[in-house]
Amino acid sequence: MSAVPSGVIIRPARPEDAPRVARLLALRGISVEEALEQAPRMIAALPVLLLASLPADDVELAGLDGGASQPPKLDAIDPPVGDDDTAAPIALSGAFLLPGDLEEGRPERWMVSGLIVDPGARSRGIGRALLAAVGVAVQEIEPGEDLFSVVETANHASVAAHLAAGFKEAAHVDGYAGLVFDGDALLMRLPGAADH
């Protein structure tokens, strides 16, 4: 597994993390209300959903305590979450089992559900570490299974994070499992433990 950057905590998202997950979902341009509706469903539905956080003291040191990197105002509803109740969410990723499709000739496979990294936390290895942790979590559920991800080729940072986490290019695609992309995309594969 890739080294986790200093001070970063990566752990499974819990139901009480819904406001933290919503904060990160809102970075994708959806409304706060939509994010707050989606977060609990996402936590309940995804077999793997990992949250990366920084303790509040580290957020200030890392320069993540202001500016455009701050998501919409959810502070008033952000409840304490035990030992890390002051941790600030900085990234989110997960995985799900995509059913196979005989017409497309696609077998059932594990897919990355997305990668969200706070803009102020980018270029620090957090996305790479989070993707690697998702791969480990999938291996714990189904040892030897590959993990796949579809990344738009224009998203150079995401492609680089996937490559750094051990993903390999599997194919160029313009659509996948019903998703259509504006431009070229890569189907990327993190080999299961049997292939290492």
From TrEMBL:
It holds the Pfam family Acetyltransf_1. Residues 8-193 form the N-acetyltransferase domain. This is GNAT family N-acetyltransferase.
